[in-house]
Amino acid sequence: MLKMTHLSKVYRTEVVETYALRDFNIDVKEGEFVAVTGPSGSGKTTFLTIAGLLETFTGGEYMLDGVDVSGLNDNARSKIRNEKIGFIFQAFNLIPDLNVFDNVEVPLRYRGMKAAERKQRIMDALERVGLASRLKHYPAELSGGQQQRVAIARALAGSPRLLLADEPTGNLDTQMARGVMELLEDIHREGATIVMVTHDPELAARAQRNVHIIDGQEVDIAEEPRFQAEQAASSHG
Amino acid sequence: MDIAPIFASLHKHRTPVALIVLEIALACAVFCNAVFIIGQRVAELGMSNAIAESHLVVISVNGSNPDTARADIPRNLAALRGIPGVTGAAVMTSIPFGQSAGVDGVSTGPDSQVHPGASRYMLGEGGPRVLGLRLLKGRFFGPGEYADSTLRGGMMPNGHVVIITQSLAQRLWPSGHALGQQLWVGSEKHYAVIGVTADVARPGSSSIGRGSAHYAVFFPLAPDPAFTQYVVRSAPQNRQRVLHAAEAKLHTLAPNMVIKGQTFAQIRDQAFTATRSMAWVLVLVCLVMLTVTAFGIVGLSSFWVRQRRRQIGIRRAIGATRANILRYFQTENFLIVSLGIALGMVLSWGVNLYLMKHYELPRLPWHYLPVGALTLWLIGQLAALGPALHASRVPPVVATRSV
Ligand SMILES: Nc1ncnc2c1ncn2[C@@H]1O[C@H](COP(=O)(O)OP(=O)(O)OP(=O)(O)O)[C@@H](O)[C@H]1O
Ligand SMILES: [Mg+2]
Which residue of A138, B63, B318, B379 is 20 to 30 Å from B126, comparing CA positions? Predict the structure, then answer.
């Protein structure tokens, strides 16, 4: 589903070049639930933004669903983001001017879907996340957990094959985090591929597979002596 | 583009939206009315005046000796006619667009309820032909009618015939039988209408643009000190030369008089100075108004794009193309401008009502409204384009990076 080989990402500023990813390799199979962990600044978000076609990369190769994405233009990338990928962000990223219903509708409108189908999908998705009764609420009128569930509904409504989540529970308390995690597990059981970045070892442990990133490179947990220390540091920091 | 969510979003920012809508409405109202008035002024510049304008020069002569004036006039005219290229010369008390020799309330009888003001033109013999008056009905004055008509102490000629303009004839005798009727001036004097001419403009510029702009009465008059205008006719290409020669000739004949010559074109030009500057001022007002509005839109749009940078990134992240973002902001602008135009139409109408009441302006024809609307839509779209392009270049990664 998602395969990166020797991928690198360099951020160039006037003074420095930062290798956010360096010779990075990952292969996520269709239907997998992968948790990505690693210390702060190690390149997790960078990996996710490249995986989600939000950013381009500097070197290497990235095949998404069998397609080499490096040759795609901006419109094609937008279309893939819209149709194949669902995003869940740490900061929820709802549009504050729009109510719950309208927020979930945004990606469907970009898909040019008919109003009746949009409505059906929006209601189904909100039903899934247990917020069907809050259609007219604005993001500011919802709790953090509810906002994140709206964001999940927005990602779900388009029936994406790949769900990318960047610390989806990072802004939530334990109880709400658990609810969100259960939701993701449900979605995974129904066949979606999920890649989730998390700092929480407990959540990471619930994924099928863990990928650990240190300094922009994927490391094998078993062979990495620093792992225990990193993990402990990041979960406290 | 789907407008419902854009409306929803605008609704959340009512105050700035309301302000810019008001600005657009005001611009729309001012623009529609200003364009209308400019159009009217421009039309006035082409105001008809059925005399041979391009053939005429006018020498105004002031300070003549009243005792010798009657004898001087034939002498002066003979001298002017002797100038090479001159095809005619005559005297008048006043000329179209020039200084007025008086306005009279005229009517069809002492009991008539209709007595419009009409300008008084008194002509010396040969005047109609020199001016090039176009007779529509009846006849010009005969030599006896000039000789019979004198001022003799009064303001009004004591002759018995007049020629009137078509507009005035129409106003007084709408059924069209002016010829042979008596034209009353005040409640005592009356004259037989012996001719109707095509419309000749009144002296001065105060009647320009009004329905009464061509209300004029021509009286024949024997040589009289009241004659101050020598009208000299020549082919258009000889005008300048004839003008200088005529001035020089009159100067030698009457060294004590104040002599001032102008081509008729100059006289007309001066009469429309105010009209022209009014039109230019309004053009300037429109430009300033539209520029201010455009900058208002640019400012607000830029501000909103900056404010919604993250939201744009989110939209991009969940599938919006650059074109979608561009269209979003252009559509938003279209909606705001449309609201402004809707309000502006009502306001235009109000402004027009006010102007109609206080400045004798006609009703604003409806077609000025779509002209105003199109102009503002265009300005709005152009003004929003920069910020919208800026928005379309917000990268999707903004959704994950900025907080
Ligand atoms: N736009 C950018 N310009 C320059 N450097 C960047 C940019 N974005 C990220 N980086 C750098 O790339 C590296 C990886 O950043 P990234 O955000 O991927 O880390 P992360 O693993 O997600 O960290 P965290 O756990 O704190 O979210 C960091 O050193 C960061 O400073
Ligand atoms: Mg991160």
Answer: B63
pTM of the shown model: 0.81
Q: A52: how many CB neighbours lie within 10 A of its CB? A: 28
Distant-in-sequence, close-in-space partners of B342: CB < 8 Å, separation ≥ 6 = B25
**Three-state SS at A219:** strand
* CA separation for the pair A93, A95 (Å, rounded): 6
Which structure tokens are listed for A72? 């795609």
Report the pLDDT value the prediction gives residue B254, as an integer from 0 to 100: 85
One-letter amino acid for residue A99 of the chain: N
Which residue carries 């384009």 as its tokens? B385
- Is A28-57+72-236 a domain of CATH 3.40.50.300? yes
pLDDT of residue A52: 95
Phi, psi of A129 (to 5 degrees): -90, 5
Q: Which residue of A8, A10, A44 sits with most ligand 1 atoms within 8 Å of its CB, as the best mutation to test the pocket? A: A44
- B328: nearest CA in chain A? A110
Q: Domain tally for chain B?
A: 2
Cβ-contact B163, B128 below 8 angstroms:
yes
CA of B77 to the centre of ligand 2 (A): 102
Whether A97 sits inside 8 A of B314 (CB atoms) is: no
**Would you place residue A118 in the very low, low, confident or very high pLDDT band (cuts 50, 70, 90)?**
very high
ipTM of the complex in this document = 0.91
DSSP B160-212: SEEEEEHHHHHHH-TTS--TTPEEEETTTEEEEEEEEES--PPSSSTTTTSTT
pLDDT at A10 over 50: yes
Q: Encoding tokens for residue A222?
A: 């078993």
Residue A229 has pLDDT above 80, yes or no: no
How many other β-carbons are positioned within 10 Å of the β-carbon of residue B402? 11
Look up residue B199 and give its two tokens: 């419309």
The mean pLDDT value of chain A amounts to: 90
Provide mean pLDDT across the span A199-220.
90
pLDDT at B186: 85
| pLDDT for position B331 | 94
Domain boundary among B210, B226, B256: B256
The amino acid at residue B355 is: L
B171 close contact with A: CB closer than 8 A: no
- Which residue ranges of chain B lie beneath pLDDT 50? none
Q: B171: which 2 tokens?
A: 């106003």
At residue A237, the pLDDT reads: 40
CA dihedral B255, B256, B262, B264 (to 10 degrees): -110
Residue with tokens 């012996």: B194
The domain limits of chain A are 28-57+72-236
Residues B365 and B221 in one domain: no
The tokens for B157 are 């000629």
Question: In this prediction, what percent of chain A has a pLDDT beyond 70?
Answer: 93
Residues B306 and B241: their CA atoms lie apart, in Å, by 69
